[in-house]
Amino acid sequence: MAKRENEGFFYRRLIRPILDLLRQGVTPEKIALSVALGVALGIFPLLGSTTILCALAALALRLNLPAIQIVNYFVYPLQIALLLPFLRAGEWLFGAPRLRLTAPRIYARIQAGLPGTIAELWTPLWHAMIVWCLVAPVFVGVAYFVLAPMLRRVAGRNLGWPEAAP
What we know:
Number of domains: 1
Low-confidence stretches: 161-166
């Protein structure tokens, strides 16, 4: 496969690998589940845990490990962006006092030491993880049922797409 100069980073690093998996015979359903779980596990509100979570899910469900990890890699900024909303939702759900946290303060604490930050914020993080447990299955279900038919269509239509799909 010749590399095309006009392919963007997103296409080269995410779309093309998914298309290659379809060409190699990985089922659209397995890819859809890998992508849905990669996103859901990739936004788990405990920093530093998502790679292991994705690997365990891939092994347990016999999913494509590179596919789920690629998606996990791409949603890392989303994990950071959703950390504070998950914390706030946990405060609301459990009626916990509002922490004086902002994204810069969280970042500064993490830079000072991730284990200490986790110990200091364990209860709010636990609350955020419960919120994630409520949201993630719904997201995975919706994402799977949207992605699977799309990928089936792509696979059925043309497994030999040219390098740069329109």
